[in-house]
């Protein structure tokens, strides 16, 4: 009979060791966040990158500089630069005629000028192909580099300069961000200790992801969540966090039946007690939710401060870079800033595989920060 | 096939009546509808409650209640949705390895193909076809966007104009 009992005992021992390993990993991450000396890094589009992207254009070298103004007016009218508006048309005696891609097949730039802007066919000594910056300079240092190649239009932006300075957050802000990130790890610890997911511990370790949603206007934690994809493949931590925020606004669809939940925060009382013990200085709870229907009846409040709407203005802290589904969910939720600790090299959509926050066609763009470790 | 999309359009109309973005969706296996839903983001205050996500949750519940392995179940599902799935839904459907997705009109704001081709990031991806009763799907969307979303906060631009 003892044979029947043996395997579970063995399994239990293995689980405990694995569980111990996870706890140690969580301890290590929290320790590393505490010891980190670096400021957080924004995850920006490729146009902020170190490598300058170039595009080939044809330029004409003018015979008489006095003609320049007439040449530019004519070209701007007949051959507008469209995507290359950031480039000045003229640099000394050189004038940008068109992107090299306009000249197709065997035709030459000479033929292009003759057919498109006939009045300029005798204005140039010769033509040549040149590489010029593909995108507009966004930062002062890029502007300097780009100008060595071709003159560009540039509007300095103090916010972007600060964002990329390596010194964006002051020490108080940094301390807050690190505290909330550590809390995401503590939430994970609590869930791992309190749920049955321990029997697939390998997957938990791979997928371990907790989320903390913060309302920075009142410096208060609005929602927390822990990945539950073991039970429901779309219940990743960000998806759950968004639903938990909805619960603070008289909404939400996913309800945990196992735990008695605190409505204002949408978190079990037991977990809340644990977090308050670990983080005595952190505030919990959302601003009062004002539904549109309620506020419409009350004339006075109509123009006063609106209540929270989805995750508008909120900061979301995730242990792991969100996947495509979660990243887009956070766009839909209109979160203001996303902070993550670990890269998700397989499905990360904010840094590793793509940068959803730089897709200009989307209707909402959040800022993304990483570099906690 | 057309009948499935017609049912999805009915659901989209229901959404419009409920002042939700009019998108409807049915999940089918063979000739049978196994899940159907519509967008309900406003009433739930949860912007991820798209028609497809609701259907996914319905199937998961069904599988759980009947002890069915959802992984296998999803691979037999064809999705009919009135508007091209957004990046979030496309990723969710990729993850679940559904068989195919047929949509009505393209989604040039959020489309999981049009705005960002999510299939590029998955090894095995579903077959995606569009333009089935697209005009009908688009007409519903136009009707919705003519009005304003009653749950969205007043835009700053509009406030200024009023003052």
TrEMBL record, chain A:
One Pfam family in the UniProt entry = dCMP_cyt_deam_1
Annotated Gene Ontology cellular components are: cytoplasm; nucleus
GO BP annotations of the record are: tRNA processing
Extract one GO molecular function annotation from the record: tRNA-specific adenosine-34 deaminase activity
UniProt domain CMP/dCMP-type deaminase: residue ranges:
210-341
Q: Which InterPro entries match?
A: CMP_dCMP_dom, Cytidine_deaminase-like
Write out the entry's keywords from A to Z: tRNA processing
What is the top-level taxon of the source organism? Eukaryota
SUPFAM superfamilies to which the protein is assigned, alphabetical: Cytidine deaminase-like
What the record says about family reads: Belongs to the cytidine and deoxycytidylate deaminase family. ADAT3 subfamily.
Which protein is depicted?
tRNA-specific adenosine deaminase-like protein 3
Q: Which organism is it from?
A: Papilio machaon (Old World swallowtail butterfly)
TrEMBL record, chain B:
Asked if Aminoacyl-tRNA synthetase is a keyword of the record, the answer is: no
Q: Which InterPro entries match?
A: CMP_dCMP_dom (IPR002125), Cytidine_deaminase-like (IPR016193)
**Matching PROSITE patterns:** CYT_DCMP_DEAMINASES_2
Q: One MF term from GO for this chain? A: tRNA-specific adenosine-34 deaminase activity
Which keywords accompany this UniProt record? Hydrolase
A GO biological process of this protein is: tRNA wobble adenosine to inosine editing
Pfam families xrefs: dCMP_cyt_deam_1 (PF00383)
**Where is it found, in Gene Ontology cellular component terms?**
cytoplasm; nucleus
Give every CMP/dCMP-type deaminase domain span: 1-125
- Stated name of the protein: tRNA-specific adenosine deaminase 2
Give the source species: Papilio machaon (Old World swallowtail butterfly)
């Amino acid at each position: 009979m003892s044979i029947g009992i043996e395997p579970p005992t063995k399994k239990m021992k293995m689980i405990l060791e694995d569980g111990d390993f996870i706890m140690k990993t969580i301890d290590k991450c929290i320790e590393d966040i505490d010891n980190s000396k670096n400021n957080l890094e924004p995850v920006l589009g490729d146009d902020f990158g170190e490598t300058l992207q170039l595009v080939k254009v044809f330029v004409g070298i003018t015979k008489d500089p006095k003609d320049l103004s007439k040449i530019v007016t004519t070209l701007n009218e007949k051959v507008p630069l469209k995507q290359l508006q950031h480039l000045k048309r003229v640099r000394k005696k050189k004038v940008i005629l068109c992107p090299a891609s306009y000249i197709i097949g065997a035709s030459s730039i000479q033929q292009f000028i003759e057919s498109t802007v006939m009045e300029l066919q005798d204005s140039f000594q010769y033509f040549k192909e040149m590489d010029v910056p593909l995108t507009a300079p966004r930062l002062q240092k890029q502007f300097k580099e780009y100008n060595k190649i071709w003159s560009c239009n540039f509007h300095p932006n103090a916010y972007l300069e600060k964002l990329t300075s390596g010194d964006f957050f002051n020490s108080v802000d940094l301390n807050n961000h690190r505290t909330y990130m550590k809390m995401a790890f503590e939430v994970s610890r609590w869930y791992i200790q309190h749920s049955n997911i321990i029997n697939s511990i390998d997957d938990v370790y791979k997928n371990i992801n907790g989320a903390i949603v913060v309302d920075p206007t009142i410096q208060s934690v609005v929602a927390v969540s822990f990945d539950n994809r073991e039970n429901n493949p779309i219940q990743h931590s960000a998806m759950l966090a968004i639903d938990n925020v909805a619960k603070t606004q008289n909404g939400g669809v996913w309800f945990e039946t196992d735990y008695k939940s605190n409505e204002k925060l949408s978190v079990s009382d037991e977990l809340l007690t644990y977090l308050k013990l670990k983080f005595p200085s952190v505030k919990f709870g959302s601003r009062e939710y004002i539904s549109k229907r309620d506020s419409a009846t009350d004339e006075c409040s109509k123009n006063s401060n609106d209540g929270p709407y989805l995750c508008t203005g909120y900061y979301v802290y995730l242990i792991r870079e969100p996947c495509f589904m979660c990243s887009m969910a956070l766009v839909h939720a209109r979160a203001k800033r996303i902070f993550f600790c670990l890269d998700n090299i397989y499905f990360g959509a904010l840094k590793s595989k793509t940068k959803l926050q730089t897709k200009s066609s989307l209707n909402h763009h959040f800022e993304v920060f990483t570099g906690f470790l | 096939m057309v009948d499935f999309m017609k049912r999805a359009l009915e659901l989209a109309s229901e959404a419009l009546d409920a002042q939700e973005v009019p998108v409807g969706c049915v999940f089918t296996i063979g000739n049978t509808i196994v899940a159907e839903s519509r967008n309900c983001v406003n009433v739930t205050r949860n912007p991820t409650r798209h028609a497809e996500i609701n259907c996914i949750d319905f199937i998961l519940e069904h599988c759980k209640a009947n002890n069915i392995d959802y992984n296998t179940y999803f691979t037999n599902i064809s999705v009919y949705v009135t508007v091209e799935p957004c990046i979030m839904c496309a990723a969710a459907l990729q993850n679940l390895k559904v068989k195919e997705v047929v949509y009505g009109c393209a989604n040039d704001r959020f489309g999981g193909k049009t705005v960002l081709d999510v299939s590029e990031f998955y090894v095995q991806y579903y077959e995606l076809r569009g333009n089935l009763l697209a005009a009908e799907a688009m007409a519903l969307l136009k009707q919705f966007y003519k009005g304003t979303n009653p749950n969205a906060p007043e835009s700053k631009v509009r406030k200024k104009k009023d003052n």
